[in-house]
TrEMBL record:
Pfam families in the cross-refs: CutA1
InterPro entries: Ion_tolerance_CutA (IPR004323), N-reg_PII-like_a/b (IPR011322), N-reg_PII/ATP_PRibTrfase_C (IPR015867)
PANTHER family given in the database record: DIVALENT CATION TOLERANCE CUTA-RELATED (PTHR23419), FI09726P (PTHR23419:SF8)
Record GO biological process: response to metal ion
SUPFAM superfamilies the record matches: GlnB-like
Name listed for the protein in its UniProt record: Divalent cation tolerance protein cutA
Originating species: Thauera aromatica K172
């Protein structure tokens, strides 16, 4: 019997205006099961053309590991929570990787996962 097809993996790139906004979005994506891992990178300088002018801004990039099956919900979640009028949301396919890591991404980028257990000191 053949194994069911596996959803291709993606690395999704986006940038946020500051580390706090990037950390908040990263946490939400993980909590909602839309990503297995989000790397919040060091702030960088972005130079781009916007509304006919060349702009320069300090931004905090995110590298988001997810699956193609989850991507539509991930894109919608980023768009709904992103402070920019036109956020950068770019998905790059993963061609190869350590098989055990790729399986881990597929297992953990699942919106139907139950929320992680939280310690509640008042329950003791």
């Amino acid at each position: 019997m053949n194994a069911p097809p596996q959803s291709p993996l993606l690395i999704v790139l986006t940038t946020l205006p500051d580390p706090a906004a990037a950390q908040a979005l990263a946490a939400t994506l993980i909590e909602d099961g839309l990503a297995a891992c989000v790397n919040v990178l060091a702030p960088c300088t972005s130079v781009y053309r916007w509304q006919g002018k060349i702009e320069t801004a300090t931004e905090t990039p995110l590298l988001i590991k997810t699956t193609a099956a989850v991507y539509p919900a991930l894109e919608a979640a980023i768009g709904a929570r992103h402070p920019y009028e036109l956020p950068e949301i770019v998905a790059v396919p993963v061609e190869r990787g350590l098989p055990a890591y790729l399986d881990w991404v597929r297992t953990n980028a699942t919106p139907s996962l139950p929320p992680p257990a939280r310690s509640d000191p008042s329950a003791e």
